[in-house]
Amino acid sequence: MTTQKQVAAHLDLSQAAVSQLVASSILKPTNGRGSYSLDECRVAYIRHLREVAAGRSTGDPEAPNLVLERARLARAQAVAQERKNREADGELIDMQQAESLFFEVSRTARDAWLNWPSRISPLIAATINTQFDPLFAALNEHVHQQLSDLGDPDLATAMLERRD
To answer: Is residue 85 part of a domain?
Structure first.
């Protein structure tokens, strides 16, 4: 039978490392305190190393589970690759580009509606034989009210809810 110091030399470990393995019950004394079998310690240490390599045991309950971490990493890599594939296939679009395009289209539509009363008022006034100014003022007021309503967040929310 041997001491912890001899076990440390046999396993090529420090005395502190062997003490830690004993404290975590990986290495166990055989015949009383401080007496160890080199063969049993070697087998126990090799089994411990296999468990650590497999990610099942580190001796430290606070340490991450390597199997779970590898699985998490594999899932994250699979999700990232799927996203890249969908982007390459044209199934996904960049949100900043989409928001920018939507903003530009909305601004163009707003500008068109703001200019509409001045373009159409003379034509309608001539068609129905009325004065331009009151007709322009009425159309302009209604167009501004409509644009204001469309910009109301409550209306946007209601439209989204109706769509669902």
So the answer is: yes
CA 73 to chain centre: 13
CB neighbour list of residue 17: distance below 8 Å, 6 or more residues apart? 8
Amino acid 102: pLDDT? 92
Residue 137 has pLDDT above 90, yes or no: yes
Chain segment 54-103, per-residue pLDDT in tens: 766 655 666 667 778 889 999 999 999 999 999 899 898 888 999 999 99
Dihedral sign of CA atoms 20, 23, 25, 30 in order: positive
Q: Is residue 59 situated within a structural domain?
A: no
State which residues form the domain around 137.
95-163
On whether both 102 and 116 belong to a single domain, the answer is yes
Which residues, in sequence order, are CB contacts of 52 under 8 Å at separation 6+?
58, 59, 66
121 burial level (CB within 10 Å; 0-12, 13-18, 19+): buried
User: How many separate domains does the chain show?
Assistant: 3
